[in-house]
Every structure is written in C-alpha cells, then in structure tokens.
C-alpha cells in the first residue's frame, strides 16, 4: 500500500500557476484548460500504453494549437509543471486508492462548461487517440467502466441513454460519482494488476 503522504504533489502555488497559464491559453486559442489537461494525462497513464505513451510532445500536440501563445519562459514552466503533474497522477494510480478527480463529481454547474465535463473530455481524448488498444479483446468490460466518463464528457450526448441520464439530476450525479472507482478498475485491467 502506498503511503499517500509520499505522493509527489504539486504545491497550491504550482497548481494555481499551472491553472492560470492553461486558462489564459484556453481563452487565447481554444485549447485544453487545466481540467482537460489533467483528464488527458490521466487517460494516457490509465490506458494500455501507460507511462510509455505519455511523452510531452503527445500532450502538447493534443492540448494546444500548433503555435501556443506562451512565451518561451512560460512554455518551459508549463512543461515542467505538467511533467510534475504526470508524476503525481501516476503515483495516485499506483496507490490503488479511488482516484482524486480534481473537481466536484457533478455536471450541475452555473457555468457553461462544468469542470468535470472538461476533465472527462480530456480523458476521452486520450482514449480516442488509441481506441483500438483500449478495447482490444475486452470491449464490453472496458466500455462498462468507461461509461461514466463518456457520459460526463458530453461527447456522446446524442446517444439516447445519455439523454435519459441527463433528465434525472440524481442519476446524473450517481453516474459521475462512479468515475474515481472506474479509473482504478481500468488502470488495474490495463496494467495486469487486477
């Protein structure tokens, strides 16, 4: 069992700084915000490629426009902070504890895009990058575990079963509450520790 105090966590200041840099870039270029970046890294690390598929270039290519608006110093800072964030996420996945999604587990939000939707969209972006390997020979069980994340992402809102969940706020919240445990199950399944 991992000592949760030993997980290499970003400080509050570092999290705030990364959030600000990513938010500013998202407003400039419609790129991933902090929650989508966190979800994307989590998806990459959870998936079949794991840490070997989580190079910084993949992250930059998917999260940002070809020419991000960061200064050279900001780009270096974002790179360093995202690398630290990847280590923190990997440590949580390895801990076997329910995964700490960095936002409330609800889609009921006064803003246009709830942070959970952004996080789940980032996670699903990582799945769609390597969809064949994710589903491989276990499509049904992977789909079951991915379902709450698929729902929260809003990417599949045209599916009838998603609309049914949307109509019931309690059911929607219950579905979203399954995400932390689902991530652990997916990670164990993908990395042979189940």
List the helices and strands and how they pair.
Layout: H1 12-29, H2 34-46, H3 56-63, H4 72-95, H5 115-129, H6 131-135, H7 139-153, H8 160-166, H9 169-177, H10 179-190
Description:
This protein is mostly helical and 194 residues long. The protein has one domain: YgfB uncharacterised protein family PF03695 (Four Helix Bundle (Hemerythrin (Met), subunit A)), CATH 1.20.120. Helix content is 65%, strand content 0%. It contains ten helices and no strands. It has helices at residues 12-29, 34-46, 56-63, 72-95, 115-129, 131-135, 139-153, 160-166, 169-177, 179-190. Helix 2 (34-46) packs parallel to helix 5 and helix 5 packs antiparallel against helix 7. The longest helix is centred in the middle third of the chain and has 24 residues, at 72-95. The chain is globular, with a radius of gyration of 16 Å. The two termini are 15 Å apart. The mean pLDDT is 88.
């Amino acid at each position: 069992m991992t000592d949760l105090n030993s997980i290499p966590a970003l400080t509050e200041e570092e999290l705030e700084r990364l959030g600000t840099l990513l938010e500013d870039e998202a407003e400039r270029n419609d790129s991933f915000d902090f929650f989508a970046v966190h979800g994307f890294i989590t998806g990459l690390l959870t998936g079949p490629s794991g840490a070997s598929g989580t190079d910084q270039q993949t992250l930059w290519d998917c999260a940002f426009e070809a020419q991000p608006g960061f200064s050279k110093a900001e780009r270096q800072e974002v790179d360093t902070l995202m690398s630290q964030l990847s280590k923190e996420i990997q440590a949580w996945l390895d801990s076997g504890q329910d995964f700490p999604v960095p936002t409330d587990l609800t889609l009921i939000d006064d803003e246009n895009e709830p942070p959970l939707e952004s996080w789940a969209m980032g996670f699903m972006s990582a799945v769609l990058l390597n969809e064949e390997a994710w589903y491989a020979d276990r499509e049904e069980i992977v789909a079951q575990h991915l379902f709450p994340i698929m729902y929260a992402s809003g990417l599949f809102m045209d599916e009838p079963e998603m609309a049914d969940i949307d109509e019931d706020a309690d059911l929607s919240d219950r579905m979203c509450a399954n995400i932390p445990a689902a991530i652990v199950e997916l990670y164990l399944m993908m990395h042979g520790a189940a």
